[in-house]
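Please, structure for the following, as tokens.
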Amino acid sequence: MTSAVSTFSASGEDAITRTIELNIDSSNTQNIAPSDFLEIYEIERTVAAIVEGNFKRIALQFPDELLCHSVPIYRLLKNKAGEGHDVYVLADTSYGSCCVDEVAAQHVDADLIVHYGHACLSQPSRLPVVYVFGKKPIDVDDCINQLGQCLTTQLQQDTPSNSNNRPSILLRYDVGYSCYADVISHRLESELQSLNTRVLHDPLPTRLDPKTAMQIHQTVEQTCAESDNDSLKSVIIAYIGGESLNLTNLLITHSHCEVYAYDPSTRSAQLQSHRTNKLLMRRFAMVQRARDADVFGILVGTLGVTSYLSLIAHVRKLLARAQKKSYTISVGKLNPAKLANFMEIECFILIACPENSVIDAKEFLRPIITPFELEVALQAEGTWSGRYVLDFEKLLASDSENDLGSATEDSGGDPDEPTFSLVTGKYRQAKRYAGDSKASTEGTSAALTLRNQDGALSKLADSAAALFLHSRSYQGLEAKIGEDSPSVLEQGRSGIARGYSDDHS
């Protein structure tokens, strides 16, 4: 009998003894001695910020790989800050771990957030933030030698005749190496001194405070004024860090620059900008799929970045001008199963921090694009110059400078003219949703649908979801209200699934 049962069921021993390989960044989870916590996680600087600002409720935000260090850090901050300062550890993030989770912090009514680990450094909208980047290990001497050789070769090839017109070097890096940035910058400039070139370096901020409405407006105006600045076109970028979203975004947003990257884990430096064209081609394919879409979903991927509400309103305005249907959805962290529930949506627009905006996962059913890619998709074909923007302020500045989307309204062409799809290779007829009185389906046969099987008609309120449901062969179970007699109430089973009380075995 036992052998027969084991044929159809397992004891679960395989699941318990199974070995799982985890790809964890060892530089973040290295064993740290208790005496080193004060230096690596900058306990003294954090306590000084708490005491000087008289913050009463402090939320500590850790990425998953640093949660193992949360308890020692909590105890050190609690002991050194003294009484009157409540400290909380945020167990999980609402969106990406690089973003400040103001939503979770407000659950405990926090007035300060201390963010640990990798950060996108997006401007917070509600709470002040103190950043603690940590200290990833790096061989500074090897970094200088590797980058120095690559940059020297590149500079000699670029300007062999005119040594006074050589491009500058812009130093970028993963935030975990920010503590070495000044040393690397000065030593790299000394290494390249014979080539008469400069090394530019902007230190990363360790604290950000929310901006007022006036400051936000001034920032948008300043960004608009600097949007035509061509100073970065004669720059070579030197990046310190491994393969990451930060490096990918750096490549596509600076496609006109040569980018050399030094990976401290492999101790090697190489040219990375050769991948830029392939990355932009993938995004251009997404733009072409967005051109064929009529129903868009605006995914809210952040609630803590300044101007995210303004950007959502900007995207809605663009879609309304183009007579596209839009739905605003907040689903937290993205995964294919969540987005597959919205079958009527043909393309998603992700409103998130620059580091989490570019989604290139093939397992998603529908394409996911950025707000800038939407602007390109709604313009006339052939208008993209290769420029790529992820920053919220630059997108809003371009909106205030140029009335984007107006070409769709004022083009003067036939709105019913079919367009050619580069994705399918066929002509397609675009649907139009209540962009104006002429685009509305009111008064046409498309505004009517069968309400039930009795032949009753109902009027659609310009709903893409209702139109999609009407096109499906299966529309759910039939609701026979009042046709079935109520059943008799009976006593059900009791107990647990392992063995109910009325089982007869």
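The mean pLDDT is 79. The first strand starts at residue 57 and ends at 61.
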